[in-house]
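Sample 1 of the test manifest.
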Amino acid sequence: MLPCGDSGLLVEVQDLDAVLALYAELVDDLPEGVVDLVPAARTLMFRIDPARTDPDRVARAVRAVEPQSGHRPDAGHLEVPVTYDGADLAEVGRLTGLGERGVVEAHTAQEWTVAFCGFAPGFGYLVGVDDQLTVPRRSTPRTKVPAGSVALAGEFTGVYPQESPGGWQLIGRTTLKPWDLDREPPALLVPGIRVTFVEA
Amino acid sequence: MESWLEVVTPGPLTTVQDLGRSGLGALGVGHSGAADTPALRLANRLLGNPESAAGLEVTFGGLELVAHGSMTVTLTGAPCPMTVDGRAHWALGVVRVPDGAHLSLGLPLTGLRSYLAVRGGIDVPEQLGSRSCDTLAVLGPAPLATGDRLPVGAPSGPLPGVDLALVAAPEAGDVSLRVVDGPRADWFTADARAALLSGAYDVTADSNRVGMRLSGPVLERARDDELPSEGMVCGALQVPPSGQPTLFLADHPVTGGYPVIAVVVPADVPRAAQVRPGQRITFVRIPSAPPDPGARE
């Protein structure tokens, strides 16, 4: 439990599964005075209204929760059609030893869960069930990655919601728009959504 | 007939801001809102608006507008000379602007961000519950451009009987900000933690609503491993590998991958937002954050 002044409390946990389990317990029942909850890779940030509560009280409320390990939030299921022709597909095939076809099969065979969002609005970090597709970021980030690019980095897969710079390995693209302000809700890939990728 | 403001020239950067968006961090959407929140709240109170009404955040003056319809305005934050059809007005006063009048702001005497509020508020459409322009996430109305027409809302309550507020102008010279230990203070050497408090940091020109890049004593890390991205707060002093801290302001990223050595207390963040490039900042560590007199829901 790491306070950030009186406007935040950063709670560090063992691993991503523990983040998901704690998030699942708390997302629908935030402690009094918490105005925002931001899950990340190993932490959850509780943004606090200092007029209504303080980090100690939030820390006590979080300690009182007993998350079940392995419990993932369930915000529904989404199928994402992907054309697997990304610029880094061959490289990812080499890095993983799976070959291009093997990468596509590993990506489509497992169910992914959005663990958290960040980097840009609607950019979800999706975690799978095995580590077959764990690859490093590109050593040189691209200055321009097209919207809809499906990519891998570390233990995560993700879909670029808008054109932006990016260092992830591109394996394909989707026509699905993960972020659309004219849609309610604007983000498709919110924490807890389970995702299956299918070949378009 | 409805009133609106026509933008003749926006100055270096003028954005529409209210009190920001809450509760969307899990979608990767930050809080945004006025960088100097107390200044925007004060402007709205002077005009009888709800404190959450949207106004214009004017960075380093230079804004010129034409009023279409008569309206009432005020200016808070960094005090700029303001003229209405050539006639000078003081900041912090309540000013009637006749239909067709030309309003212009000069350079602020001190501080960086002025708030021009209009009775009834700037009535552009909300996006995700706010009219704030988030320059990082590209949300809300775009920064003002020549020719823009900004609708003015209907007044919601009586004008208060106050026509001049007496508040201190933003500081010139060195500015001292209070900090508490950050969540990753222990990722830094004892020397680095001492250096943060002993030296002065220049505010560089590479500063904006996202954060202020500072230049001063290098802050060395005690460990070299990579920090998994984690949630950030406004006021955080994040330290990238260069060892030069960035002070996060209203449009800061929701998550970040560099350790936070210290956090400027919420009561001092609005003062930080008024420090200009070229001024210097010193940090004073306090054991825990004091109550923020400006905090309210």
